[in-house]
């Protein structure tokens, strides 16, 4: 009986063969080399737009982003009107570890995007927040709530976390041999490496603990390390770039290589513990630009950082049952889950578009499939945790709103929400567009472009999609939006040329190409586009002349294909054949090349061989009309020669004009339906924008109607946690004659019988930080949460009110229970630790800013207890802080009412 199979999957984000191969040749990645030699390896084709959260969830589920639902880094929550990180419960289909768990296999998973909170698996699950240290340098910081499943294992695994301050700084010498010459206080890059290494070792330690102490059939570990290091340091790698100084090149040129080496060493450590009976899969979600292919700069557009990502990632796998020494062909992200399921003796679902990689198992025919894993018990909901991502902040924000200190509905500005919707819509639209799912892609691409029309990169894919769907008029309108910039931008010029060609406006494309040389575009891409235009016009001689003008030592495959197309169009098959053979030797993924080869063979009377070429073209592109035509013509010719051809009976076909008219009628109805749906979407978005514009206009008019203020006068800010005594301090200041900024909209009640002294407009400070300037020369109450939104260049004096956390929570909960809004009762259980953490973070931030601007003497901390028990001492402090005289001091003392000190700790009661 075969042994039960075990497998470890290692995700190396951003790893690339072009960077790894020189290291492999030098023997510096021995453990990866061993996997390559004893198993199967090759390129792993990624998926536009090369955004890691989308890609890793595609790998984990075997499903397209449209099906798994993870569209980016953060999502817009329509219920709360907030931007939130994508969470594990938002994934809409099962991951491979869910499927293995329901088959009673021990499945553990560590890290990965959109993995928080930790899922319920038949094993250990550790989320993406487990390795985060929000207080960098503080040892033994517990991990975030919900970052480990089962929850009773959290304390155990917390012991294996490595904070940045705990990483041995001697590790820096491995990355940067001359690190001792760096002034680290001024150069943050060494510190960045420690922070990246912190997460790397944290997840590695967790994996070691699982392998050493737990039974496992499957263990998946995601490492962000290589991708992070490449983004931080690959610009310093060889060859030296003109914008990199000699010193930076000398210091940091080896960092990326050393990151690969460290990742390889840690893999060796893990696999040595797992044993020889465990299979290993190492893969990346995308590659990374290196050498001369590195971008000159990161595009200043949404997620422009993805311009550094190459479409070709890497995959290597070895172990029992996996073929040795084979090269994987045409491996894609969608193939990983079907291949993993096959390794464990399970069938992939028919709703998984990927394939089982045949080279890994020597398969001649694809394995059988079941309908879907989604309908099998237990349901996906069984594995999904309760949503707790960013729980402390969300609880705090909701709690403050219930107390009346925040305008929660406006917590995120509409412009930020629209920007995020645009980003995620573009991500999903790109993924669907490049999967030829044009109807599904259209709404996403329209939404992305509608809300961010100033982002030129959003227009091109929209126009492509419209053209694919036959919406030529709409596409030309989109193209015209780009045309204004094509007159001065060479890259946009070429994009518009391509779009005009696709829209059939070839003459307009040729006219635009005439301006291309003056825009700094090199001659070769101009010649290629000119040739394609002439090909479309059936001008094969002119097209060939344009292609022959391309002067490159190594002509790109696309140019060779274009030249071959011209030669075939001119029926110069003898000249075309060696060029097509050369193309096929370079790539096995070109349907055009197989089509041309089939056409050439057919002319040479090799009908069976020609039919095989058309078949291969159709395997690559099942919708390739010319390949279908070529195949069926060859089939008919072969049947004729074998005497098996039976003529069609004409009566079987309807050649009337009615049939043709019926086709066009259906086509027109289909396009009308698309246009109508598009118009409704645009009307909906226009209504949303009108609401936004109305709000912005109202705010502008309100601001313009207010009297100007003297911004040179300091703003006296009274802050603290809600119910910490800020209202009492405002009473004391008012009694001393300090002007108060208050609109008295919030009237006195049993919780604050002498009034709140609040300014309602301060609740939306985050949407308009400069409104605080209206309080110049006055005292204004600003709740602690809102301090982060104060303009950093303001002239402030700050009085911070302290109070015992237990008294604060008791007072807050009493206030909530006395509220007329019963919905607030669910918020009364706010943890004291949450408030304590918030207070520490706020005070730390205040001190750092005060130190930076040398304004530490402008902050006064006063305890609520002192206000009540030692009011004279507090009055003297305030007088010194604000420059008040003795008369004002007595007024401060007189206003204090000790009877209002409720919810006091028993220990303080006398």
Give your account of this protein's structure.
- The structure is a single chain.
- This protein is an alpha/beta fold.
- Helices cover 48% and strands 9% of the residues.
- It contains 35 helices and 18 strands.
- The strands form 4 sheets. Strands 1, 2, 5, 6, 7, 8, 9, 12, 13 and 14 form a 10-stranded mixed β-sheet that branches.
- Helix 8 packs parallel to helix 11.
- The chain is globular.
- It starts with 5 loop residues before the first strand and ends in a 15-residue tail after the last helix.
- The model is unreliable at 389-393, 395-412, 820-828 and 906-910 (pLDDT under 50).
Which descriptors would you attach to this protein?
single chain, 910 residues, alpha/beta, ten-stranded mixed β-sheet, four-stranded parallel β-sheet, 35 helices, globular, disordered C terminus
